[in-house]
Amino acid sequence: MKSVIRHVGFSALSLAVLAGCSATNGSSESAQATNQVANQTTLVALSAPPQVDQALTLNQIMANPDWMGLLAKGAYWSDDGQSIYFARQAHGAPTKTYYQQSIEGTAASELALNQLHSADQRRGVLNNDKTRKAYIYQGNLFAKDLNSGKVVQLTRQNTAIDGVRFLNNGDIAYWQGDNIFKIHQDSGLLEEIANIKMAAEPKGVQEPSSYIAKQQHRLIQYVAMQQDNAKAKQDYKAELAKADPTMSAKTWYLGDKEIVTNLSLSPNGRYVIVALKDKSYSWRSEHDIMPNYLGKDGYVDAVPARARVAEDNNPGERLVLLDLTTHSKKDITIEGLTGFDEDVLAAVKAENAKAKGESYKSEKAPRNLQLMQDWGWSQSAIQWSDSGDKVAVMLESVDNKDRWIATVNLDKGSLITEHRLHDDAWINYTFNQYGWLPNSDSIYYLSEETGFSQLYLKQQGEKPQALTQGKFVVSDVTLGPKAQFIYYKANKTHPGIDNVYRVEIATGKDEQLTQWQGQLNYTLSPDGSALLLNASTRIQPAELFVQPIGGELKQLTNYTSDAFKNYAWQAPEVIAVPSSHGAGEVYARVYLPQGYSKDNADKYPAVIFNHGAGYLQNAHYGFSGYFREFMFHNLLAQQGYVVMDMDFRGSKGYGRDWRTAVYRQMGTPEVQDLKDGVNWMAANVNVDAGKVGTYGGSYGGFLTFMALFNEPELFQAGAALRPVTDWAHYNAPYTSNILNTPDVDPIAYERSSPIEHADGLQKPLLIMSGVLDDNVFFQDSVRLVQRLIELEKPMFETAIYPVEPHGFRQPSSWLDEYRRIHKLFEQELK
C-alpha cells in the first residue's frame, strides 16, 4: 500500500513534520523481526522497501528532533509498584519535566516543582525490613515511611550530601565530602562518626629535644611552666574524650599527599574503607586548553581540556581500612591478589624493544591498581554483606589486563582473591556487576571468562558455579527482592534481540520472561511481580511498557508523534555477511533502494555507515540511537542507494573475541569487514562495487580515514565527522585499553593512527569537526589537515562548526553537515 506524505504547519518545537495515512505499527514490526531471526544472507531474505509518493528532504530529517515526539526518559517504579515516574525534555531545553503515570494506563500527570522533593525517587536505600527509604534530593537528605507514605526532610543545607545508607540498627548514615555522619533514629541526634582530614597528624605538645631547648626549659621557669600547662591541657582533653560520651569521634589524619576518591561505610557502622589517590594526578593537562572562539564577551575563552593518553600517568589507588570502634587504621595490602606483580605486558614491551634494536628483560613488580571503573553501573565497587562483617572489593589493574573480586580480612587488612579475570587484550569496562547474596557467604558476578558475559555464583573459598552458559551476552543483573531469582537481560535468540530472563538460584532453572523482538531495557518492580520495559523496534522509537511476570505486555506511553510513526519508514533488514578473515559472520543492517530489483540493468551505488564508539552495537532489531542517520539512510534509499550499517569487529553484543579483535591494530579488522560488506552487496543486492562511499562520526570518522588511507580502491569517497586522527591524543581510559600506552607500545599507536597513514589518500575526503569538541579535540582535524597539505593531497575538504561539541546540538549544524555529505555522494557515486 502506498503512503502519502503531507506537510503540516510549523510549531515552536519543530521546523517540519512528516505525516502519512498508513502506518507500520509496532506489532507488525515485531512480527517481521521474528520472521527474520533466521537472518539468511541470500537475496530472497530481503523484502522490497515500502513505496512513498513524496521523498524525504534533508531539511525535514535534520530539523529539531522534537517533531518525532518527546519520549519518556529515565523511567522507574514508584515505591508501591503501582505507578511509574519519568521525565521528558525538549531538544536543547535546559530543564526536564517530570511525570507520574499509573500502570493501569491512565494518562500521566505532570509533577509540580513543589512536588518533586516528595515524589518517589529513583535511587534510595531501604532499611533491613524495607519499611523506610532514605534518599538524596537536590543534595539534601530525606526519609520516607513506606507504610504511611510520610516524607521527612532531615537536612537543609547548601553543601551537597554524597551518599546515604541505613545502618543495621535503623539509624541513617550519610557522607559529605570526607566526613561521615549518623542520625540516631530514637533521638534525632546528628553525630559525626568519622572526620577524615587529608593532612599530617598534629604532633601535639613536644618535649624539648635540642640542647638549646632543653637548656631553655631548665633555666627559664616561665618556659617550663608553659610546657607543663600545655601538656596538662592536652592530657585533660584526651581523658575527657574517653570519659565523656557527648564528645565527637577523633579525627582521622591520612596525610597530605593524597585525596579521597571513594569511601564506603559498613552496614554495622564499624568500618570504613577509603580509596586514596596521589593528589598530584589530574584529569587534565595543565598546559592544554580548548579555545572557544565565540565566547560570550567577544573574546577567546580558554576552556580546560582533558589530558591525552600520551601524557597520562595514572598512579592507581590504595585502600585504607578504618575501624571506628577501636580508632585503628590498616593499609589494605595487595599481596593477596593473584598475579598482582606479573609483568603482563612483557611480550608487548619485548616487541617494541626489538623494533628499536634493544632487548627487554621481564621482572616482577607490583602493579598500579584501582577500584573497578565500570562505565555503566550505578553500584559501588565496594560491596558489604548485610551484616557488615564481610566485604568484597572489585579492583582492576591500571594496565587494563586484570580484574579481581577479593574479600578483605578485616582483622589483618589483607586481600583474599575470590576471582581473577585476566585478558591479554583488555578487561571490559562493562559487564562488572556483582554483589552478595543476603545472609550468605556467596557472591554473584558477571564475567567474560568463557568469551561471553555470563552470570556466576561463588561461595567464599569455593569454585564458582555458572548460572548461565552460552554464546550470548548477559547484562543488567538484578537480584530479586526475596533473593530467590536473579534477573538479567540477554541476546540469546539473536545478537540484535534483547529479552529479560531470570534464573532460580537454588535450582539453576532459567526462564525467559519477555518475548520482545527488538531492543529493551528493564527495571524490576519493588515486589518482583512485574517488569517496566523501555523497548523499541527498528522503526519504532522506545516507549514504556509494563509486563507482569507471566502476564500480558501492556504499553504505557505513546509519545512518538503521529507524524513519525505513520510514515512508511523502511525497516532495515538485519543480515549476516560471511567473513573472509575467519571471523564468522558480520552482522549488518541493509536498506534497499526504491523500486529495487535484482535484475536492474544499472547497478546501484551504495553507502556504508560506520558507527561511533567502536564498542557499540547498531545492527540490531531496535530503534537506532543514530536516529538522524536512520532517516538519512531512508532518504538515500529513496534516491537509489543501497545503504549498509555494519557491526564490524570491535562492536558490542558479540562477545569477548569480537570486542578484542582490534587490540593493538585498530582500523585493520574493521576495514577488512567493510571490504566483505562491499563484496556482499555486489554479490547479493546488485551494487556496483566501484560506486561505494562511506561515512561516520567519532570512531566512525576514524574508520573512514583508515579505509580511505589503507584501502584506497575500496571506497570512492568518504566523510569523516568529529574524527580521531591520532590515538595518542585521545583520552587514557578508552585508548589505553586497546592500544596500551604510547610509551609502552608505540607500535600499536603508529599502526592504528590515521595520521601515520595519510599518504595513502587517493579519493575525495570530507573532514568535519566541532571546534568545542572536548571529546575528540578539534586539534585532531587541524593536525591531519596540515599533514595532508604537506603531503600535497588535493582531494580533501574541511568544514568546521564553531559552536558544536562532540555531539552536535544545533539543527542548522546537522543540516549543513549532512548537506555536504549528501553532495559528496551525489558527486562521486552517481
UniProtKB/TrEMBL annotation:
Coiled coil: none annotated. Residues 1-19 form the signal peptide. Residues 381-537 form the Dipeptidylpeptidase IV N-terminal domain. Pfam families: DPPIV_N, PD40, Peptidase_S9. Residues 634-829 form the Peptidase S9 prolyl oligopeptidase catalytic domain. It comes from the Bacteria. Keywords: Signal. This is Peptidase S9. It comes from Shewanella sairae.
